[in-house]
Design a protein that fits this description.
2 helices; 5-stranded antiparallel beta sheet; 4-stranded antiparallel beta sheet; Electron transfer DM13; mainly beta; DM13_domain
Length: 151
């Protein structure tokens, strides 16, 4: 029985094995398809922004590192900013804001994940008092790559 469980676990995790992930050397390039779909920028201007929350990424099933911060501007628009972010690639990776690492009450930020420095708009319906975890989630296999608890 233990062998069967081990085999099922191995097959399940094999779906989210290490692949190449797009680095983010120039997110202002119009030739980068990840940029156009994510509306990202490399150097987020913090002038006039208020830092609301921040956290460090921790590993889950895959190595994940970097810092994530949430800023708010004078118009109450919030931005999720990744600094020195790095994770393994996988199929169907998403970035979620959730209440916990178990994907409780989550909201999807994007369906594209890339390494480097980037910023993403946070939807207005996100409740940062509750949804205070940033998850790198493989939707296809329900695998948590890494996470950051925001404080």
């Amino acid at each position: 029985m233990k062998i069967i469980i081990a085999l099922i676990t191995a097959v399940f995790l094999a779906g989210c094995q290490k692949e190449d992930i797009l680095e983010n050397p120039d997110t202002n390039s119009t030739t980068n398809p990840m940029v156009n779909s994510m509306t990202t920028q490399t150097n987020f201007n913090t002038a006039g922004q208020i830092l609301l929350l921040q956290g460090n990424f921790e590993n889950a099933v895959h190595a994940t590192s970097g810092i994530v911060k949430i800023y708010e501007d004078k118009d109450k628009k919030r931005t999720l900013v990744f600094e020195n972010f790095k994770t393994d690639a996988g199929p169907d990776l998403r970035i979620y804001l959730a209440e916990d690492r178990s994907v409780t009450n989550f909201i999807q930020i994007t369906d594209k994940v890339q390494n480097g420095n980037l910023s993403l708009a946070i939807p207005t319906n996100a409740d940062l008092k509750k949804q205070n975890h940033v998850l790198i989630w493989c939707r296809q296999f329900s695998v948590l790559f890494g996470f950051a608890a925001l404080k």
